[in-house]
Amino acid sequence: MSGSVLQARVDLSHATVADPQAFRADLVAKLRGGERLVTLFGRRAGDDALVTAVTQRADGALAVSRAAVNVAHGYHELTTDFPALHCFERELHEQTGLRIAGHPWLKPLRFEGGDQAAMNAYPWYQVTGKEVHEVAVGPIHAGVIEPGSFRFMCHGEQVLHLEIHLGYQHRGVEKRLLGKPPRALLPLVETIAGDTTIGHSWASAAALETLAGVDVGEGAERLRAVMLELERVGMHLAGLSGLAMDIGHLQGASTYGRLRTTAINTSLRLCGSRFGRGAVRPGGARVDASPERWAELKKNVALLQRDLAGINELFTSARTVRHRLAGVGVLSTEQARALGVVGHAARASGVPSDTRRQAGGLWNALPIEPVTCAGGDCLARAQVRIAELDASLAWLARRADETPPRMEAPRPLGPLAPRQLVVSIVEGWRGEVVHALETGEDGALIHYKVQDPSLRNWLGLAVAVRGNEISDFPICNKSFDLSYCGNDL
Amino acid sequence: MSRFKALRVRAAQGRQYIPDLRAATPAGHRGRPVISSAACAEGCAACVEVCPTRAVALGPVAIDLGRCVFCNLCAEACPPKKIDFTPATQMAATSRDALLVREGDTQALRARAHETFAKLFGRSLKLRQVSAGGCNACELELNAAANVNFDMGRFGIDWVASPRHADALVLTGPLTKTMRDAVRLAWDAMPEPRFLVAVGACTISGGLHEGPANDRRFLDDVGPTLYVPGCPPHPLTFVNAVLDLLGAP
Known about the structure:
By secondary structure, chain A is an alpha+beta fold. Chain A has helices spanning 20-32, 86-96, 116-120, 173-178, 186-189, 197-212, 217-246, 250-271, 291-317, 319-325, 333-339, 343-347, 356-359, 362-365, 378-401, 454-464, 473-480, 484-488; strands at residues 6-11, 36-45, 48-56, 62-70, 75-76, 100-101, 132-137, 149-155, 158-165, 280-281, 284-285, 420-427, 432-439, 445-451.
C-alpha cells in the first residue's frame, strides 16, 4: 500500500509458528547463507515469548519467521556466531524474560522499569593490569546533548575497551504507543527520536496504512520523501557543524551551522515546524506544496548547493581536518558487517546499506545517488555525509524543478485488518528506522516494536574507539552521531 | 590557496545574525495560539478529543501551553475554526498557571521581568543544560539559540559545561527515573544564587511522555522560575523568555 517504504506483511491467521529448534536452525541457515538480520523481537504470550525474526536477502526481499519459545526453557544464543544479534537477544531477554542460554553479555539495553540505583549497581566490564585505569564519563556530558554513560578502560591514553551504558532516556515509548488509538499515534511517534521525526513518522504511518488498506497516493509519498530528504540534509549539516566544532575548525562549525538553519527553515515553511512535526499524517501528508512554497524550496536548495560547495572544499582539503580525522575511529568493513551497523556509518565502512534502493516505489522512479566510502574512519564518515548532502540536494533540486505534488486531504483510515504483522523500514538520516505493528483478533494493536538505527550502531562506536586515544572519543562519537533516546525508547 | 578558499567561504557567509531578536517572527511557524470568541458548535468537543496531551479545555476554550505540542490538530478539528496557531514565538511565564491561553486573549504571553534577576544576571547569565528524557529536538533548538543566527551570546547568555559555573539549570525531557540522581547532583553542584528553567512540554507537564517511567519530584521540590513552552520551543521563544525575565527592553 505504501509503495515507497520497504515492508513485510504477514497474515498471522495463516502463518506457521515454528518450534524453537526449527526457528533457530532456519535463522542460522539464512544468516550463514548471507542474509542480513533486519530485526528480532518478541512479546510475551503466557509462558511463551512469541519471537519474530525479519531477514533480508541480498536482492532486498524480506522474510519473516516466528516461533513460540517457552520463557523458562529459552533457546541457545546466536550472538557468539552472529554478533549483530547481540542487541536483539539482550532486548528479548530484557523485555520478555526469555532465557537465552549461553549469551556472552546479557546486559540490559536500557534498564526498562529500573531507576538510577539499578543502573549504578551494574557490574562494568573490567580490564585488569598494573597500569590499566578507568575513566568514567556521564550520564551528563559537557554539552547540550542527551545523557548516557561511557566507561573507558585505558592503558595510558590508549583505550582498550569502551563500555556504553544507556537507559537514562527511557520514557516507556512502546508501552505508551499501545495505549493510544492508532489514528492518534503520530505526535508521540514524532518524538521517539526528535531529530528523526520524518523517518519514524513515515515508517509508522506506512505500517498503519498497510493495515488499514489505504493507498496514500503518489503525491503524498513525494511530499513525505521531500520532507525526509530535508531532514537528512538538516541533520547531516548539524553533524558536520558539531564535528567541525569538536576539531576546532571554526569556519566549518559556523558555516555548516547556518546552512542547517536554511535547511530546517525550509521544512518550517513547508509544514510549520523546523523538525517536520505534523508533516506526515495517517493517510497522507500535510505539507504546503503551493507554487510559492515550491519556489522557496528551489531557491533554498540552490543556496545550499552553492554555499556547500565552498565550505566542503575548504573543510575536506584543510590539512588540520584531514590530520585530525584520518585514521581515527576505524571500523573495518568486516566489523561493520559483523556488528550489523547500518546507515551512513555502514556506508562509510564500505557496506552499501541503504533501504531506499530496495524500497521501490518513488525511489525507483526518482532514484537517489547511493554513496559509499571504504575508509571506515572519522574522515570517511564525514565524507559520506558530505556526499549524501550533495546527493539529497541534487534530488531535492530535481523535485523543486517539477510541478509541485497535488495537495490532498489525508485519506481516512478505516479499521485495521485483524491478525496481521506489518514491518515498515524507512531509511532515516542515521540509517534504517524499523517499525513492526501487530494486530489482534479485533484489529486492535497488540504489539508495537520500534527500532531506531542507533540500537545497532552504538556497539560499532565502542569497537571503533578501541586502540585510539581517549581524546579521540568526542570526534568518534560525533562522527557516528547516534541517538540516546532512540536506543532507550 | 587555502587562504582564498577561507575568504570565499567568509564572503558567502555574509551577515548571519538576526539584528533584532525581539521583533523577529518566523513566517509559517506554528507558535502561540489565538482562540477567537466565535461560538462553539453545539455540544462539540472535537478540539479536546483530538489533543494528544490533554492541553485543551472547554467552557471557555483554553489551551494550556505547558501541555501543548503545537500539532495543530485542535485547530483543524474545530468546525468554526476558533483556534489559530500564529507565528508569534514569544510565550513564556514565570508561573505554571500563567501558561493558559483563553478564548479572546489577545495579549502576548510574556515572562514577567524580575528586578533581582536583572541586577544579578542582566549582564552575564551562564546556563547549564541537562536533558532528562529529551528527544533531542529541544536540545538542538537550545544549541541553535547560541548559533550564528540567534547568537544569544551577544547578551552575555552562554551555555557552560560545568554546573559549578552556571547560574541556571535548563531542563528538558519528562524527567526520567533513570536521570533522577544525576539531575539532583547537577543542581546541588550549582552555587547560589541559582534558578531553574523548564523547557518544553515534556519538562513542564510530562507532555507526550507523561507516564510511570518518570520521577518528577525534583521539579516539584525546586520549582521552575521560568517556563518555556513548545515541542520543541523555537530558539526565539527561549532567548526572548530569558531576556524578558532579565528585564531586557
